[in-house]
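debug: dumping io for the single-chain case to check the tokenizer round-trip. Nothing else runs in this session.
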Amino acid sequence: MEARRNSGEAYQLDREYSADFWRNSLGKYDISDEYFVPTVRDVPMFPDRDVLPGETWSAPGYEVHDLRQGFNIREVFSFPMPVSYEYRGPVNRDGKELHHIVIRYNIFHRKDIPSGNPLYPYLITGYSDQNLYFDNILGRPHSYDENYEIMLHLSDGSTVTYEGSASAEVIESPDLDREALKDDLRQRLNELGVEDSSVRDDEDGVTISLENIQFPPDSSRLVASEQAKIRKIAEILSAYPQRDILVSGHTALAGTAAGRQQLSEDRARAVVEFLIELDARDRSRIMYQGFGATRPVADNDTADGMRRNRRVEITILEN
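debug: decoded output
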């Protein structure tokens, strides 16, 4: 999954990706060219020997990007870069002995411009400076932070720049016991008196569906009764703090398709922001999406069906 957000806002689920690949003990990827993820590949790469603090080495890596939106490039867009490494030595983080590796690369790569595409990135420049903390026991990264800038020089003479900072930590969650979770959620919803609710499992995890969710007409403002309902949901979610959450908005079949889509997104975002305000999740562990009226659960030709289709779904993700 890939999420995006404007400054200060909740994360919105933007795209979903899947990939099958192998990676050997030195860090080399074995992956088909068809996949858009992982974005950075063959990084880190390790020499086939032990390294000591202060040692440096280099190896080629490459990045791949999805430029279908905005650039109309249907295939995976990739470019190579030489990567340099410096092993700083062992450090203690989160009660673990980890190994600090500084990773740097500069990007300068030219591409041939295909005919018929006035916005093709013919030159890619930039850099990345990273601090990687590697867990030797588990044989994988524990966390990292990064400052980066990538500039796409386009064939029409303009440039597009991506710059900023990033950080991440690998979080492992136990397998989701879906049957036990569904039973527990149903019991808690019943005990708390959450009306018009149901529980099911799907490919992403276990979902609480809140039908007949109440907003003023054409508004994403939660009315007092729905705030009370979401407070109860926040109490339920607090029992599963290790799981990420996805909130999905749905509308009945009324108005325009574009209006329904925007309204479903706005209402899902309102629920997410309220859950964040209630400390049900950190902003980085919850996201939202909208489906408009494209996934009805009942007939939109009846008042009862439209009531059921106006819903918000909260999924406890498999992670």
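debug: round-trip ok. The radius of gyration is 23 Å.
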